[in-house]
């Protein structure tokens, strides 16, 4: 890739390098609370983009993000969208609002995720992790596909970026049966998170295949980062058990190399704007570089990707066709 970014590169450095690619683009980023990867992504993009749509399920937190972005980039065109990815009804409502916008969407960044925690069922009867990290974003992407395709030109193909994780290695193959019928008795927080991140990768692989060049899809592992997600009260005991946090709840470097939030958001910005990736839809990025070969075998299986796609269509009650 040119420039040659590394694990130490920041989102700001990437955005500066691709300023011309970001210009005149309308970008929608899910999960943009302060002290998170989505906010940092929005912050560096806002300096150049025509429109940045930020989302969150909490109106007050969303307002704080908007204020912080406009304070730093007064010229930015920021638009707020209430989006609760754990609710299919709310996803449909938010998508309808976006589809009523006059502008097309050039880049959709599915960044939002649920913190690791206890077993919860959503209003739709789904386990909260898979619902928020995979099923909700799948439906949102499906409903916004016409908006994305409207951004197509002879020289530009719209992009979908999914924020996954190397934590998919912590989970065995996705248990398709429990997606339909979540089982509290067999629930394991780490496995649930890993399976949700596996779903992000499988969905990206299948979207890239089905889009046949009409959309480009990428999935990224941002790294191990001390974001607001990892500071959630329910997540702290789990992360301590995994060795990510020490006894005081602070990041532990004993087993993992931590990144800063600016470093963590860098791969997302590469996936969203690096022209080198134009003909490489479906790849997995780690430390701003293509690392598809590092995906766990059960998460790179095209047969499993198709199975997950078909199952998710059943859950949302809609076919996702491009």
Automatic annotation (TrEMBL):
<keyword id="KW-0560">Oxidoreductase</keyword>
<dbReference type="InterPro" id="IPR002347">
    <property type="entry name" value="SDR_fam"/>
</dbReference>
<dbReference type="Pfam" id="PF00106">
    <property type="entry name" value="adh_short"/>
</dbReference>
<protein>
    <submittedName>
        <fullName>Short-chain dehydrogenase/reductase family protein</fullName>
    </submittedName>
</protein>
<dbReference type="GO" id="GO:0016491">
    <property type="term" value="F:oxidoreductase activity"/>
</dbReference>
<dbReference type="InterPro" id="IPR036291">
    <property type="entry name" value="NAD(P)-bd_dom_sf"/>
</dbReference>
<comment type="similarity">
    <text>Belongs to the short-chain dehydrogenases/reductases (SDR) family.</text>
</comment>
């Amino acid at each position: 890739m040119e420039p040659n970014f590394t694990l130490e590169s920041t989102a700001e450095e990437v955005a500066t390098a691709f300023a011309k690619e970001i210009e005149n683009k309308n970008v929608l980023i899910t999960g943009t609370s302060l002290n998170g990867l989505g906010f940092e992504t929005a912050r560096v993009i806002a300096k150049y983009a025509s429109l940045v749509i930020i989302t969150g399920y909490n109106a007050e937190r969303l307002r704080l993000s908007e204020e912080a972005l406009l304070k730093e980039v007064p010229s930015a065109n920021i638009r707020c969208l209430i989006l609760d990815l754990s609710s299919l009804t709310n996803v449909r409502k938010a998508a309808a609002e976006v589809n009523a916008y006059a502008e097309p969407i050039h880049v959709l960044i599915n960044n939002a995720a649920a913190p690791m925690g206890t077993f919860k069922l959503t209003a739709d009867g789904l386990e909260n992790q898979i619902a928020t990290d995979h099923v909700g974003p799948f439906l949102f992407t499906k409903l916004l596909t016409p908006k994305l395709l409207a951004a197509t030109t002879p020289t530009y193909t719209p992009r979908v970026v999914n924020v996954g994780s190397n934590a998919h290695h912590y989970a065995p193959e996705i248990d398709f049966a429990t997606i339909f019928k979540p089982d509290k008795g067999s629930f394991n927080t780490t496995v649930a998170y890993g399976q949700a991140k596996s779903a992000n990768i499988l969905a990206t692989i299948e979207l890239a295949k089905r889009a046949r060049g009409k959309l480009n899809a990428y999935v990224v592992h941002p790294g191990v980062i001390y974001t607001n997600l990892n500071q959630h009260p329910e997540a702290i005991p789990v992360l301590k058990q995994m060795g990510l946090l020490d006894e005081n709840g602070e990041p532990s470097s004993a087993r993992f190399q931590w990144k800063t939030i600016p470093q963590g958001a860098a791969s997302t910005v590469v996936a969203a704007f690096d022209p080198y990736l134009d003909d490489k839809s479906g790849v997995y990025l780690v430390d701003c570089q293509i690392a598809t070969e590092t995906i766990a075998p059960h998460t790179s299986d095209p047969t499993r990707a198709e199975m997950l796609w078909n199952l998710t269509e059943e859950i949302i009650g809609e076919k996702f066709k491009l």
